[in-house]
Amino acid sequence: MVESDIETGQAHHQYKVLVRGVTKSFVEQAREVHALHDVNLHAMDAELVTVIGPSGCGKSTLFNIISGVESPGEGRVYINQVEATNTVGHVGYMPQKDLLLPWRSVLDNAILGMEVAGMKRASARERALPMLAEFGLEGFEHSYPHALSGGMRQRAAFLRTVLFQKDILLLDEPFGALDALTRATMQEWLLSVWEKLGTTIIFVTHDVDEAVLLSDRIYVMTARPGHVKLEIPIHLPRPRRYVMVTSPEFLDYKRTLLEALQEESARALGMTA
What we know:
By secondary structure, the chain is α/β, with parallel strands linked by helices.
């Protein structure tokens, strides 16, 4: 799609999220850092899209721009057919750390966004309680974060994000700190919840297996400044299960991604000729 189509409204109705020509630089320790360069990507309705790339390629900066927390130097962001550059409140955003408040119970952490939006605590609790079982938290509504496992903390943080009631969710490496077995369990759990919610998810990860298992499409970013190197549709059948990671089709996707990532990681480390 060309930019004139966006401006006239003839084509962008297909997209839940549309990023066009986003470039971002900032000053860090008295030097200019070029974080992103001419980034173009999109996510369709109820699609799960993953962004993967070497460390420092600007993935989190891109999320901050999509969510409106940061402004791009150049480019535009469209959310649900409307230009949303520099505006917040259009998406649910779950950062890398769960950011659960230690003095609030699981239930009261989950309803935080609704309270901030002005809903009375009793009404917010009433809305959240029926969802605890779906998120594996039933019976723990009065527990505090220090008593939860890593996986339970992430489920509580995800429930809080879902309860913002946005149809687009940005998930920034939500399982990065989990051990391998818990991470695999959480990946399957996320897929089952996403299929029921019908939301659009854009997911950042460093894990190639995770990217292939979860995604409808994968964007591979270059080393800084981050730019889209590859866009790879994933045509594995759904529902997905972790056992698929050893299938020949899965391994073909993994090989393609690893080759692209290794090349960019070498560039990031200055190891290319």
